[in-house]
Amino acid sequence: MPGLDGLRTLAVFAVILYHLNVGWAPGGLLGVSIFFVLSGYLITDLLTAEWRRSGTLDLKQFWIRRCRRLLPAMIVMLAAVTAWVTLARPSTMPVLKGDAISSLFYVNNWYLIYHQVSYFEKFGPVSPLGHLWSLSVEEQFYVLWPLLMLIGLKLAPRRGKMFLFMLSAAAVSALAMLVIYDPGTDPSRVYYGTDTRAFSLLIGAALSIIWPSRKLSPRIDRFSRRLLDGIGIISLAAILVMIWTTNEYDAFLYPGGLVLLSLAAAAAVAVLAHPASRVGRLIGCKPLRWLGVRSYGIYIWHYPVIILTTTNGAGDVSVPKAVFQVAASIALAALSYTLIEEPIRKGLLGKGWKKLRSGKLGVDQIPLKGWITGATLLLLVIISCTGIARTPAVASTVQALGPAASGADGSSPVSQEVSAAGDGTGNADAPASGQQTAKGGDHHDAGPAETSAGSPADVQTPPAAQGQQPADDAASGTTGQAEDPPSAGGKATSSANPVGVAGTTPAKSGEPGGSSGKASGQGAGAAGTNAPPPVKRNLAVSAIGDSILLDAAPYLQQYLPGIVVDAEIGRQMSEAPDIVERLRSEGKLGDYVVIELGTNGAFSSKQLSRLLDSLKDVRQVVLVNTRVPRNWESTVNTALRKAADAHDNATLLDWYEASSGQSFFTPDGVHLKADGAKLLASLITNAVGTKK
């Protein structure tokens, strides 16, 4: 079925484009669902064919074939990647260790769920094995499904009952995704879960019951062929449109979008598997088929190649580098297919073991290629095992799930409230390593640091204010203030080393202190940092945000005396309603409210609307959009723009536009330098009290 090999090529390159952060394929992650549908169809087709031939299922042989097909290539990849990280990227070893071991036993998806590691929000050292969760889902299916099929075929051998059973199970899985998914929060739980992703596999399995490949004839009438090709074109077009238009935070995706994608993929599989399909012959052309046959190797190699050759985070993207990464992934997959997968699939290990036991395998009978391959693999295994043995496991250094997890700022959660009197500040000590840990993993608990109104804190001068920057801060990508942060009343207060964070958002800027339409911003760039805005007194202002706001807090205290700033590293929009109610009950919610959230992940339009509805009684809400080189940047900024247009008391501060083309960020494109924090504070000050 060459057409299915072509579909594999489409699926694997969709995933590669997603991991390369290609802007025109934000839904590339849907390629995984295509693989699931394909696997469900092919495995069930094989099992039912065996049942028809022999009246039983040889489970032992089935599992041996699966292990022989999948394990060798993955073990080689794990050994090579772990050895490389041991020698060249030792800082990544703590996170890689847990991923490698859990992937080897095909439980990586549940490992990530248990440690609440996000697939989407990744900061700090990223595991090069973060894509292997999908292989765990498939292997768990391969273990359980033959058992269930054997029971089902014995109890209900008729196709109709089996088909209805599979569709019912798929509906239960889709319902589980619908129930567990919480709009506006990180969707990784439903994205990883075997329970919430099984419907794609089961839809493919159900298709094999009513559309078995052994009964498909190349001889069909002209009308049937045209109908077949028409369905194929429509289904493939639907898949491509979804890859082009959706993203991981799309509110449509999890309540039903993935189900629709799986149904479209099933329709495509039905057409491409048919020997009479002209679309199948086109998609199954030699180049696409060659790549499709090696798609497993391309999949397992592409992500390590991308991660280990990317040095400056998401900002380290270029067409030549992307071409090199894709070419390297294909080359490694081709080598794996020729030297590892095919020889072992054809029984190399079994034949060699039999010859060795019978004494017929001599040293002189092993070809040079075999010696080189064996020696290389042995060296990789030794290095990788040494690296794993010497490294303690850490849950993950990528962005953790939930509001309490670390965020784009690269540190553990730290909160700071600047008092209404403007004379206090918390000392929020974040981990110096710059690595984030998921909840459930090892992390330093910095704890919240707040000061209440009228309770002045000791003055804390950032090291950078004295012309110094701690080495570990430099390593983590944070930058201290280049000058003493301004303070209200001479009592400067900010965290001992404020952590800068990125922001992103589109909007046309006006002149300083003005606005363009409903958006307020400043496109003048760094010039704005040298011209502080006039101090605005007698304004009751409250600001809620993440660590970007923490960076700007010292300047805001000077420009807006009496401002209440409630900011926390890693904060999500979902936390804002509770913060608003707390500030209101404490009498700290001002007539002017600044919301600076979105750096650490997307949120739903409904969440934002509910928040703004709760702030109808305030004079003005300033929504600060974001600049962060992550997939959710455009989603966040679009939601903020639409919300500002829809609410009379809301104003959009276009930080995305104001920071465009400026050197306000450290090399990771996320953290703010001192001049960026100062400009952001100036723009917020100008926006407060400004009419639309």
Task: Tell me the radius of gyration.
Answer: 28 Å
Q: Could you say which overall geometry the principal axes of the C-alpha atoms support? A: globular
Question: Structural class, from helix and strand content?
Answer: mainly alpha
Distance between the termini: 61 Å
Beta strands, count = 10
The percent of residues in helical segments reads 40-55%
How many helices? The count is: 24
Q: Could you give a short account of the major beta sheet?
A: 8 strands, mixed
Give the neighbour order of strands across the main sheet: 2-1-6-5-7-8-10-4
Are there runs of 5+ residues with pLDDT below 50, and where? 396-415, 419-517, 521-529
What value does the average pLDDT take? 78
Portion in beta strands: 5-15%
Region (Disordered): 403-534
Transmembrane segments: 30-49, 70-87, 140-156, 163-181, 196-214, 226-245, 251-273, 293-310, 322-340, 361-383
Keywords: Acyltransferase, Cell membrane, Membrane, Transferase, Transmembrane, Transmembrane helix
Family: Belongs to the acyltransferase 3 family.
Would you give an account of this structure?
The chain contains 24 helices and 10 strands. With 692 residues, it is mainly alpha-helical. The chain has an 8-stranded mixed sheet, with helices on both faces. A two-stranded antiparallel ribbon has the order 3-9. Strand 5, helix 19 (547-559) and strand 6 (564-568) form a beta-alpha-beta unit.
